[in-house]
Specification:
Layout lengths: L5 E6 L4 E8 L13 H9 L8 H11 L2 E6 L4 E8 L3 H13 L5 H19 L2 H14 L12 H6 L2 H11 L5 E7 L3 H9 L20 E6 L4 E9 L8 H12 L5 H9 L6 E7 L4 E10 L3 H16 L5 H18 L3 H15 L5 H9 L3 H11 L6 E7 L6 H4 L4
Parallel strand pairs: 1-5, 6-10
Antiparallel strand pairs: 2-4, 2-5, 3-4, 7-9, 7-10, 8-9
Helix pairs in contact: 9-12, 9-15, 10-11, 12-14
Amino acid sequence: MANGPLVVVDERPGATVAVGVWLRRGSAHEGEDMAGAMHLVEHLELRRCGERTPEQIAALIDGLGGAVDAFTTRESCAVTAHVPAERWRDALDLLLDAVARPRFEPGDLETEKGVIAAEFEMVQDSPGEVAAELALEACWGAHPLARPVLGRRERVQAFSVANLEDFHARTFTLDDLLAVGVGPLPEAAVREAVAALPLRGGVAEPLPLPPWRPAFRVEEREGIEQVYVNIVFPGLPLGHPEALALAALEQLLGAGASSRLFRELRDRHGLVYEVDASTYAASVGGVLEVTFSAPAAKAEACWGTVLRVLEEVGEGKISDGEVALARKALDAAVVLGAEGNDALLDAHVAELLAHGRPFDADRLRREIAAVTPEAVRAVAQRLVRLELMAGAACGPVGVRLPAVLERRVA
């Protein structure tokens, strides 16, 4: 339902202001024929917008003396700034122009196509990123959330100015905007500026529910010696009532130095330098992710240890002490996340996108404290099931999965 833009301002004294504008649509909303368009528009927004030339924008950003950034995710496209408090209006005007009034010129377009071509090459040169992309394709197939944010190389290179102008006019709508500010800036002025933007109404169509496929992808590479593995299990969507229980599970499984996987793989057996667990939550689904890399000669031993740990966790063999330590880590992250206006900006946006409410550190800490071992075990038993496991591996020629997973290779 179209309810207009969402504007949230956390007015507080201070020497700096953090402000950002989010479009609540991302690469997953493009459509296959426009894959990569959102990321390309994001690149161009701060090159030429409103009446500003590239040189004027560059001078303005340097003159603001802070940081101006733009980024695209699967479900959002954002521009943000962290600047001295007295420059809040200049920063906000620039961000709003970038979102609502970008100007696409053929020369700028060709330049940014070259920059994005280099990004494609960087991803392909990073086996860990290749494994991450393949893992989502393995578990979600052709679903829009499985498509890389960069899109498809050939399609991006074919985009014209007219393509991008039409895409921007259809996609950047006032009702899908989220504007957030933190610091000494007046909420009324921010609301007025956002409401005046020359954008049409309308909200994005909800994404379809992603299917789950317990499949694996393998890519062999000449000239590398490490095996990069990305394992995924079904996760939870944004705003799910069990999200904090899953966060505690992520923490105790592989997100810290005391986590199961870190202690087993690195501290006890010295098999890897790094192992990690993380979650990705989207509006209609999510994944719980385990990543590690190891020399090819140690890959078999790594797999054996990882599968054993995952089986134990999936059976609910989680101690009360592990959950208590995970809660402490999550609580500390909330405290640290409330320090500084730029951190508060990120915290507000995370809560608004997940729950439709501003960040409240005290409330979130109470919710973390209420997570029980029983709740964490229940989530683990439902999600961390080896028959649901999917993922990808990128390694040297001849890389193989454990026999139990070979039949799942897609």
